[in-house]
């Protein structure tokens, strides 16, 4: 009876999903902007990828902003984005163009999942408008065949080892000898590795190299300021972790700033610089805050000054190495 009820619920959910899919496909291309969404298959097995496509059909004179579909990860529950890409534009007769995005979704839990509507912003005569697609549903089924999950066999009984006492003693001696030899070899290899290992690269040297590599990518010249600030933040957090053993890359901005307020190794000016920079990065990343080439250069200069002010001195290095001995 329980299986019948579950089958009825899954059938009803799938009917609702197919209805939403039909409503999505019914968007009229005669409208200034039409949004369609579809999946390559409505049912997959656990671990399979679902190809989800967002198609926007619009007049060529309309400025269309394709959605940042990653923002819908939380509402999708156990569905995760495995990969995505923007497809080349397709120009149609009558002054229209089709833009498409594809996403590969995956999950390892069975059930019926609803993919939330995609949000598309577009501007007509200077006015911004928003259009939503319909939601879609995907059923994820188990890779096990029906009846396999309940067919659990009893474990086999304990296999007794019929060894004579004399043979058992010999085996124990051999195993103990092998373990001792392996331990000696391991200790010798470890000492040899420690003796031949090069000295660790100082944190500030690695940070300067990472900054130079970041600047060489030309993100500022391409006006990719959001990505530049994100990468610059990673360079700073990694330096602080290497230099001060603070797990900065794993902390939120609020958690990191709370630690800074209680750490005497940083001056007031340094704490204020870090707070201002990290808050600015969050604004750019999450709130789409305004930025520019001048702000990016100023932030880079501040990070270089901070590294120069806090890099490990020769005296500090000797003191730390002496404490480890």
Protein model, in words:
There is one protein chain. The chain is 46% helix and 21% strand. Among the domains are: 27-141, Immunoglobulin-like, CATH 2.60.40; 203-314, no CATH class. Strands 1, 3, 5, 6 and 7 form a 5-stranded antiparallel beta sheet that branches. Mean pLDDT is 78; it is low at 2-10 and 18-28. The chain has 325 residues and is of the alpha+beta class.
Name some characteristics of this structure.
325 residues; alpha+beta; Immunoglobulin-like; five-stranded antiparallel beta sheet
In short:
Helices cover 46% and strands 21% of the residues. The chain is an alpha+beta fold and 325 residues long.
**How many strand elements?**
11
The fold-level CATH name of one domain is Immunoglobulin-like
Percent of residues in helices = 40-55%
CATH architecture field of one domain: Sandwich
Quaternary structure classification: single chain
Question: Into which percentage range does the β-strand content fall?
Answer: 15-25%
Order of SSEs: HEEEEEEEEEEEHHHHHHH
Distance between the termini: 70 Å
Structural class: alpha+beta
Major sheet details: 5 strands, antiparallel
Residue runs with pLDDT of under 50 for 5 or more positions: 2-10, 18-28
Q: Judging from the principal axes of the Cα atoms, what is the shape?
A: flat
Instruction: Calculate the mean pLDDT score and round it.
Output: 78
Q: Please identify which CATH superfamily of one domain we are dealing with.
A: Immunoglobulins
**The level-1 CATH class of one domain:** Mainly Beta
- Count of alpha and pi helical runs: 8
Compute the CA-based radius of gyration: 30 Å
């Amino acid at each position: 009876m329980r299986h019948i009820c579950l089958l009825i619920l899954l059938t009803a959910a799938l009917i609702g999903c197919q209805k939403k899919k039909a409503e999505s496909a019914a968007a009229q291309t005669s409208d200034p902007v039409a949004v369609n969404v579809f999946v390559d298959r409505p049912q997959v097995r656990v671990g399979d990828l679902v190809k989800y496509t967002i198609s926007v059909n619009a007049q060529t004179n309309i400025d269309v902003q394709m959605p940042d579909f990653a923002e819908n990860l939380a509402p999708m529950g156990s569905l995760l984005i495995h990969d995505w890409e923007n497809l080349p534009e397709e120009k149609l007769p009558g002054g229209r163009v089709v833009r498409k995005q594809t996403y590969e979704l995956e999950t390892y839990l069975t059930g019926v999942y609803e993919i939330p509507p995609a949000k598309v912003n577009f501007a007509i005569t200077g006015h911004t408008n928003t259009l939503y697609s319909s939601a879609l549903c995907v059923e994820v089924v188990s890779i096990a065949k029906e009846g396999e999950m309940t067919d659990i066999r009893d474990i086999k009984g304990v296999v007794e080892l019929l060894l004579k006492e004399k043979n058992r003693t010999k085996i124990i001696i051999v195993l103990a000898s092998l373990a001792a030899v392996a331990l000696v070899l391991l200790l010798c290899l470890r000492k040899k590795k420690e003796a031949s290992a090069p000295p660790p690269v100082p944190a500030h040297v690695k940070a300067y190299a990472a900054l130079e590599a970041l600047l060489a990518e030309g993100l500022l010249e391409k006006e990719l300021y959001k990505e530049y600030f994100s990468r610059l933040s990673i360079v700073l957090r990694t330096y602080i972790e290497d230099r001060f053993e603070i797990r900065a890359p794993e902390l939120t901005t609020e958690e990191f700033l709370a630690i800074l307020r209680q750490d005497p190794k940083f001056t007031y000016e340094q704490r204020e610089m870090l707070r201002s920079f990290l808050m600015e990065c969050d604004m750019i990343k999450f709130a789409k805050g305004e930025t520019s080439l001048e702000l990016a250069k100023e932030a880079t200069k501040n990070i270089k000054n901070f590294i120069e002010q806090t890099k490990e001195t020769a005296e500090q290095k000797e003191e730390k190495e002496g404490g480890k001995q």
